[in-house]
Design brief:
By secondary structure, the protein is α/β, with parallel strands linked by helices. The protein contains ten helices and eleven strands. Helix 5 links the parallel strand 3 and strand 4.
Amino acid sequence: MARPADYWAGKRVVLTGGAGFLGSYVAELLKARGCPDPFIPRSHEYDLRREEAIVRLLERARPQVVIHLAAVVGGIGANRANPGRFFYENLIMGVQLIEQSRLFGVEKFVTVGTVCSYPKFTPVPFREEDLWSGYPEETNAPYGLAKKMLLVQGQAYRQQYGFPSIYLLPVNLYGPRDNFDPEVSHVIPALIKKCMEAVDRGEPSVTVWGTGKATREFIYARDAAEGIVLAAERYEGDEPVNLGSGTEIAIKDLVELIARLTGFKGEILWDATKPDGQPRRMLDTSRAQRWFGFKATTSFEEGLRSTIDWYRTAGSKSLSPRAPAAH
């Protein structure tokens, strides 16, 4: 399982999505481990939906390792508004990048999928063996299915061509540098922003989507990055691997915790006309620990405090509306 301490030294790495939220942490870790300068393609120069752009990228970077994080992502609202776009763009980016990486002789391809690929009613904790036991939750099914097809492609390419592709399934991310734009943000940044703005404005209440009964698991972005880099170093198998923290919290309890940490003391109102999304979500993370030694180390409250502190000092000042894309 262990690799030489200098595994990343001199490695040519392409990190798609490296300028994004999770990607920024992966890039920092790669550099700290000795990767001199991971190549991070930007969408204005390399539109990964276009095959010719991918060919130009690979011709220029000549990577030995590709870590594919780029995605078109968003919360429940963004998924409901953009099902066709989320399906097509996530699928076409990954399919073409994997194919061209095979043709260019890439030595290791790391696909980062999504927990949204799991069936709507998956037994908790989610085990990788259950990935095909049903249809995903409807509001994010197009996104989840597009990402799941990249697992199929990676396994098929390994079987036919010996292509060294691995596939990781991170649970919901959070942490400093997250996207707090209310049009596309996920639940934790959306709730932090709501509560902090209510405190600043002296508002007596905040309104939250759903009933609060659904549960979620969250992983701190820096921990997820550690899992991705460890898998790239150590994992050589064809089976998907969950990346998570192994803890579950009800949305109602999450809202109350964020309200306490942000100092919001008003009323929490629930808009039950809006969807809860998947009823429950928590991963079995034993494969990651067993196969490449990964275990998340950041406690949930510690991670939330860091996220809130970052938003208070930096995030709210730099926030500007943007489209739900991260090519």
